[in-house]
């Protein structure tokens, strides 16, 4: 029975083989070769990615921010594969560029990168790099970038979106603001650790010592403490500092001014109502002080009982200060709040 059944099964298998189309074997062979090639390509990509990550980790072990030229930028940032986020600062730190804002931003960027490097959450999913204009001019041209400093986030997949460019003009470049932006783009939270700064403590100690020494020397005559004019001057200085935006500067850390890299023109007034430069706050402080001085002179001319001619001169000087500097202040307001219809003397 077993001998007769075996030939029968062989004949059935032969019939099944004869039913296969004659062109199926080359197709199956091609499919097999394609699968092998795809598997080899995938393996090659994995090896390339592993090499890139290993190289980036080696650079990060040496310094928190590594510099890139055009070739490195294209290899590690533009070219796939990539499973990590890259934060890049485009800057111009060479002395001949005279970019003071770039140096200030670089200090904050260094604080942020160091905080990430020495963080317990440090991993190979986020790296910090820098492209200097004199080392990667082709990169600036490729990205159509005409200003520095600029911070950009290059995600693991796809091209950077609009939100991947940090709004430095509106937010400033403080390390804490950069860390918040990175958390929004990558879900990686960096706790910023600043190096200890004792300048504030030393300044406070000197001030206390100065006031204490002054009180000790004048201990027999402390009538100046009750001087209303002195306290009024101190109060005005505090008001001028606060109303000019000094606290905003302290929180946001904006640049002192902006220099156009193409024509070298320096802007001291920010063109947006959502931001300001440090120089702008100084200008506003001086304008407010001049207007206040004019108001004081007008009050003095109206309340004093001196010579009429002298009071008239004081009145005219005070009126001139108020009119001119208020017009100047209003023109700055119009330049920041576009569409504001009112002006006075100065447009």
TrEMBL record:
Membrane topology: Multi-pass membrane protein
Pathway: Protein modification; protein glycosylation
Domain of life: Eukaryota
Transmembrane helix keyword on record: yes
Compartments, record wording: Endoplasmic reticulum membrane
A Gene Ontology molecular function term of the record: magnesium ion transmembrane transporter activity
TM spans (from-to): 198-217, 229-248, 282-301, 313-333
One BP annotation, GO: protein N-linked glycosylation via asparagine
A Pfam family hit: OST3_OST6
This protein's UniProt keywords: Disulfide bond, Endoplasmic reticulum, Magnesium, Membrane, Signal, Transmembrane, Transmembrane helix, Transport
Alphabetized InterPro entries for the sequence: OligosaccharylTrfase_OST3/OST6 (IPR021149), Thioredoxin-like_sf (IPR036249)
Gene3D superfamilies: Glutaredoxin
PANTHER family with a match to the protein in the record: DOLICHYL-DIPHOSPHOOLIGOSACCHARIDE--PROTEIN GLYCOSYLTRANSFERASE-RELATED, TUMOR SUPPRESSOR CANDIDATE 3
Subunit field text: Accessory component of the STT3B-containing form of the oligosaccharyltransferase (OST) complex. OST exists in two different complex forms which contain common core subunits RPN1, RPN2, OST48, OST4, DAD1 and TMEM258, either STT3A or STT3B as catalytic subunits, and form-specific accessory subunits. OST can form stable complexes with the Sec61 complex or with both the Sec61 and TRAP complexes. The association of TUSC3 or MAGT1 with the STT3B-containing complex seems to be mutually exclusvice.
Family: Belongs to the OST3/OST6 family.
Protein name as annotated: Tumor suppressor candidate 3 isoform X2
Organism phylogeny: Eukaryota, Metazoa, Chordata, Craniata, Vertebrata
């Amino acid at each position: 029975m077993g001998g007769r059944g075996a030939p029968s099964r062989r004949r059935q298998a032969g019939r099944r083989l004869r039913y296969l189309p004659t062109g199926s074997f080359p197709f199956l062979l091609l499919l097999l070769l394609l699968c092998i090639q795809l598997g080899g390509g995938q393996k090659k990509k994995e090896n390339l990615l592993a090499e890139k990550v290993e190289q980036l980790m080696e650079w990060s072990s040496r310094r928190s921010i590594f510099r890139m030229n055009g070739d490195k930028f294209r290899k590690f940032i533009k070219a796939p594969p990539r499973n990590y986020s890259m934060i890049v600062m485009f800057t111009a730190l060479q002395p001949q560029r005279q970019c003071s804002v770039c140096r200030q931003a670089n200090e904050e960027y260094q604080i942020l990168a160091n905080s990430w490097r020495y963080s317990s959450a440090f991993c190979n999913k986020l790296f910090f790099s820098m492209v200097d204009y004199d080392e990667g001019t082709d990169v600036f041209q490729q990205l159509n970038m005409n200003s520095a400093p600029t911070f950009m986030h290059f995600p693991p997949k796809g091209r950077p979106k609009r939100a991947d460019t940090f709004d430095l003009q509106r937010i400033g470049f403080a390390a804490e603001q950069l860390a918040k932006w990175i958390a929004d783009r990558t879900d990686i939270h960096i706790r910023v650790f600043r190096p200890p700064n004792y300048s504030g403590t030393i300044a406070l100690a000197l001030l206390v010592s100065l006031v204490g020494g002054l009180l000790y020397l004048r201990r027999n005559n402390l009538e100046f403490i009750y001087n209303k004019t002195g306290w009024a001057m101190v109060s005005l200085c505090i008001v001028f500092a606060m109303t000019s935006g000094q606290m905003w500067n302290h929180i946001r850390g904006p640049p002192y001014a902006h220099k156009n890299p193409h024509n070298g023109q320096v802007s001291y007034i920010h063109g947006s109502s959502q931001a300001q430069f440090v120089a702008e706050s100084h200008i506003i402080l001086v304008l407010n002080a001049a207007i206040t001085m004019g108001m004081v002179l007008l009050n003095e001319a109206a309340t004093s009982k001196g010579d009429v001619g002298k009071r008239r001169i004081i009145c005219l000087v005070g009126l001139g200060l108020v009119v001119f500097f208020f017009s100047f202040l209003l023109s700055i307001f119009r330049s920041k709040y576009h569409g504001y219809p009112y002006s006075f003397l100065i447009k």
